[in-house]
Amino acid sequence: MIEQQVARRIREIRKSKDLTLERLGEKAGISRGMLSRLENNQCSPPIATLSKIAQALEVPIGVFFQEDHPAASQRFAITRRDQRVQAVRHGAQIGFTYWAFNKARNLHLIEAFIIRHPAVKKVPKMLFDHPGEEFLLVLSGSVEFVIGREIIRLDAGDAIHFDPSVAHRVQNRGKTHAECLVVVAGEKSYARPAGSGMEAK
Length: 201
Description:
The structure is a single chain. This protein has four helices and eleven strands; from the N terminus they run H-H-H-H-E-E-E-E-E-E-E-E-E-E-E. It is an alpha+beta fold. Helix 2 crosses helix 4. The longest helix has 15 residues. It is globular, with a radius of gyration of 16 Å.
């Protein structure tokens, strides 16, 4: 299961850097209890949380989806349709599914995902924030994009480029699922301090 792999990779990288859960939590702005649940595969992190952990560990997000650290240099990576790595958030009210793409080994500034947002009756309350830049393109369906106190409707073909350090979320208010292409751009050092998730008022 990809979720077990992500949990294992977070734990392996943390230990390889001689970081305790408390210290990693301080660097990432995430509680020790949450990190423990993630490492024990008791919950699955959204992209924003993975981005914070990656920044704190000074690694690209894509390394969590790799079985081993690749040693050879690589200038490009192709992902065929049937090769996308799928991860599902279980036990969460948002319950979205996302797919990661293969990553060029020596290129680390951006990470791309396709995220499927199911139709939900209850509007989620949690907002997320993380360092870097983010770009979202709606592939199908329509979503409401919440950033700070603004709510923006985005339909298929619409895109938004934004500062993800401002608390935000994407919510599907339609009757069918929506799919979005999300590109997250971080800093080369992956070491910029991250904020923490918050709830909308």
